[in-house]
Amino acid sequence: MAARTNSGKTKRAAPAGDGYVIEARAVSKSYDSGKLTVDALRGIDLKVKRGEVVSVMGPSGCGKTTLLNCLSGLDDVTAGNVIIEGKDIARLDDDTRTDFRARRMGFVFQAYNLMPVLTAAENVELPLLLGDVSPSKARAKAHEALETMALLKWKDHKPAEMSGGQQQRVAIARALVNDPAILWADEPTGNLDTPNALKVIDLLLGVGRSRHQTIVLVTHDPKVGARADRVVMMDSGRILGEEKGDSARGPPPALKRSDATDSS
Fold first, then answer.
1. Please, which pLDDT band fits residue 91 given cuts at 50, 70 and 90?
2. Are 251 and 153 in contact (CB under 8 A)?
3. Most distant CA pair in the chain: distance in Å?
4. DSSP-assigned beta bridge partners for residue 186
5. pLDDT digits (tens, 9 = 90+) for 48-79
6. Is 143 strand, coil or helix?
7. Alpha carbon distance 173, 76 (integer Å)
8. How many CB atoms lie under 10 A from the CB of residue 59?
9. b/e burial code for range 217-250 (CB count within 10 A of at least 16 → b)
10. pLDDT for 250 beyond 70
11. Where are the domains of the chain?
12. Among positive and negative, which fits the CA dihedral 230, 24, 67, 177?
C-alpha cells in the first residue's frame, strides 16, 4: 500500500496503492485471565477493498466480533498490524484514534443503543453535535438520514414508540449521518425476525453501496451474510476460507415508502 501523510483528511475518492481500505496483517488477539490464556484471533490476514461489502460468518465464539473490534480500533491487537486508509491504527494515540473513528467510521450493533429519552431525530444528530456541528446543520442532516431510512415521519418519536425494525433503522441512520468511509455492523439484524432482518439489511447495504462505502458485516444468518460481495468464514480464531456473496443480484433496492410499515 502506498504511504500516506498524516496531514489532512483522507479522501474516499482517491484510494492509495492497491485500493485496499482495510488490511489486517498477521493479527492475533489473546486474553489472559491469569489462569488461562484465550487466543481469540490467530494470525488473521484480511484485505478489504474500498466500496466492498464483506460479511464475516462462523459459529458462536469463533472470533467474529473480536475481529471487527480489532479492525475498527475498538480493541487493541496482541500482535500484527491493522492498516485503515493507510494508517496503522495501533500506532495512533487514544485521542487520535477516537477522532479518526468519529470522522471515518460508523457502527451498527445488535443492540440499538438508542437514548430512550431522545427522539429519533435527536438520537441521529447526537454524534454530529458531539463533533461540534451546529445544531441547525445537525438537525437538517439527521432529517436527511432518517428520510433515507424511510423514517422521517417518525422523527419526533422516542424509541419506545417504535418497533424493533424501526429502532434499528434509526441506529443505521445515526451510523450513516457522518457519511463514514467505513461501516462496521455487528449482528445488526440479530434482534429481528427474518422478513424484517432482510428488509433492514437490504436497506443498509443499498444505501452503503450507493455511497461507495466499505462495509464489514458480522452475522450468523446465512441469508444476511449472502447479501455481501464476499463471505469470509471463521472458526477458532482463524479464517478458514471465503466465497463470493450473492452480488449477482446487483445492489439491493432501497426500501420503498410502502414497505415502511408500523411493524417493520
1. confident
2. no
3. 56
4. 109, 218
5. 999 999 999 999 999 999 999 999 999 999 99
6. helix
7. 27
8. 12
9. bbbebeebbbbbbbbbbbeebebeebeebebeee
10. no
11. 51-62+94-259
12. negative
Length of the chain: 264
DSSP secondary structure code for residue 141 in this structure: H
The answer to whether the CB of 111 falls within 8 A of the CB of 187 is: no
- State whether the Cα torsion 190-191-195-197 is positive or negative: negative
The whole-angstrom separation of Cα 49 and Cα 19 is: 6
pLDDT value of position 264: 57
What is d(CA 63, CA 246) in angstroms, rounded to the nearest whole number? 24
Rounded Cα gap, residues 94 and 90, in angstroms:
9
Q: What is the DSSP letter of 118?
A: S
- Which among 175, 255, 229 has a CA at the least distance from the CA of 56? 229
**CATH node for 51-62+94-259:** 3.40.50.300
Distance in angstroms (rounded) separating the CA atoms of residues 45 and 192: 31
Gap between the Cα atoms of 103 and 33, Å rounded: 34
